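Justification of resources, computational component.

The compute hours requested in this renewal are based largely on the per-chain cost of generating structure records like the one below. Each record pairs the submitted sequence with a full structure-token output. That output is archived, and it is also reused by downstream analysis tasks.
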Amino acid sequence: MSDNKRSQTITQGASRAPNRAMLRAVGFGDGDFNKPIVGVANGYSTITPCNKGLNDLSLQAESALRKAGAMPQMFGTITVSDGISMGTEGMKYSLVSREVIADSIETCIQAESMDGVIAIGGCDKNMPGAMIAMARMNVPAIFVYGGTIKPGHYKGQDLTIVSAFEAVGQHSARKIDDAELLQVERHACPGAGSCGGMFTANTMSSAFEAMGMSLPYSSTMSAEDDEKLTSAGQSAEVLVNAIKKQILPRDIITRKSIENAIAIIMAVGGSTNAVLHFLAIAHAAEVPLRIDDFETIRAKVPVLCDLKPSGRYVTADLHQAGGIPQVMKMLLVHGLLHGECMTISGQTIAEVLKDIPDSPRVDQNIIRQWDNPMYAQGHLAILKGNLSTEGCVAKISGIKNPKITGPARVFESEETCMQAILARKIQPGDVVVIRYEGPKGGPGMREMLSPTSALIGEGLGDSVGLITDGRFSGGTYGMVVGHVAPEAYVGGNIALVQEGDSITIDAEQRLLQLNISDAELEKRRAGWKAPQPRYHRGVLAKYAQLVSSASVGAITD
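The structure output for this chain reads:
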């Protein structure tokens, strides 16, 4: 089979002389029209430190593609900075950007009949956006992660961006002064790379490596290290081989490989956002996956890694301790990974891991020994009850007591809740409700890192619950429950909660319950009216019209 199977459409025959004329203008010569054309989806941007190093990786991949006998064509994909937009109206665009990224990659690859794509991304939505596109198109593809940021340092402590968010809460509680807050701000983000803990970007990159769509060890490399450049070039070479062999994304993205990815997410203590994103990726690949499947895997897989936000270490430390291959090998030898799954290299997972030790090195504490995990079961619990009949996601790592019953403190937006927290109006035992922040209601399902971090900073992380139809940052921890579905905007029961109502969050029983009678619920429902849309034109308005429930991935197609 020809390696340029798709691009022949634009390069072969007398009638394609105009097409070739334009290709000659961008660097094609007489001998290049029989080579596979490979898209380099370059997420480079100076908007965020996560993406500012990606152009060098893209140029490295471009050069490697040429040497491997392919013709690269580079194009840009967007990114937004979740960290910069957090707590503002701009954060409504974050989840929307996942769809824009997916659509942009699909548009370029399909419009130009390219034979493959190497996607190079950094910030949170780059990964799922690219993978959704790859799964949709099903042309040979590989993902290259831009790499993690190295930790900042202050007073002998490792800092991440979450340190700065928590410092805001500490400052409002007068635990630190203006000068201390400024020092945390100055030291939290020392350079290029995605946020340093096992937050959303590092969670998704780790999961992609486990799924077989990225090269081994690539998911935990630091953005500023030379090995990241080397890995980008190797990824390009592997992709050209995949084009020759016609190894397609849907050969790799299967039910079993997604289960492998979810197992890794649990083992490393990953982000709640991974639930949302993998539901969407599975949908794009036409792989059956339900939110309840996460609970099934959670019950079997221990948390093996001591990583921030609730643990001690950052992703750069995990890399030095053996990276994702070491964690995968532990899961494999204990029957919790499907070793027969194919990877982009053409090897199976078992073949990739054959030389990895069964147990981690004893001279490190980041990857725990199998008989001494951080937690015996995974940390992302799927809760149901009358407040979330479709299911919601609770992150139960790093909390002393996984259940609370308390009075509802109801807020119609993130901003009004944040004002109350900073004004010290939230008390131990309260259950904060932030609603109308769902996929349709926000729209865009904002992350509640600002309020959750402020609660942690004020010392309320173990004594205050928070539920929302919005999302959480991968940096969030505490007694928090997100993705509540159905959301308030479509009449979910979270819309019917009143100030002072008793709410129970019980992660052990996997329960989210409003403690009122069914009769009272129905009475309130009869009096509820759907709010008017917040946006009538533009991308947010279009997104609100298309987007599905969070319980199926907030998909738009």
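The longest strand covers residues 403-411. The chain has 21 helices and 14 strands.
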